[in-house]
Amino acid sequence: MLKISSQRGAVSTTVAIIIVIAAVAIFFLARTAAPPGPLDGFARCLKDKGTVFYGTFWCKYCQKQKKMFGRSTRLLPYVECSTANGQGTLPICRENKITGYPTWVFPDQSRESGVIPLEKLAARSGCSLTASSTNPTDTASATATSTQP
Hints:
This protein is an alpha+beta fold and about 150 residues long. It has helices at about 1-30, 40-50, 60-65, 90-95, 120-125; strands spanning about 50-55, 80, 105, 110-115, 125-130, 145. The chain folds into 2 domains: about 1-35; about 40-145, Glutaredoxin (3-Layer(aba) Sandwich), CATH 3.40.30. It has a 4-stranded mixed beta sheet with strand order 2-1-3-4, with no helix packed on it. The chain has a two-stranded antiparallel sheet with strand order 5-6.
């Protein structure tokens, strides 16, 4: 009787492990299979050029800036400045003298705070932004490339 009980326990454990592995695999496959965002090229160019976006998770203006990028937000050169409890500033932001959010630091080390229109980000960063609409939330046909050859 003890032998049958321990075999059932081993089978149950094995089945549970397989289910967990399958769930994790499905999660990562679904996540990587997401279609590219319309501003992926622009967001990558910002990062490649050395532009940095400093913000906090609790800042409504940072959320508004991120929303302008839609699905491409995941590619932004974003640095979180807030501690997890929202009560402090992380060392990287103190060291870089970030005092307001959002703050963008451009390749020439100049800064601009507040929600910046995509066209202005393009001009300041040296990245090209082409969009059929000037509405920052309607970027369905937008593409971006670096202005360097």
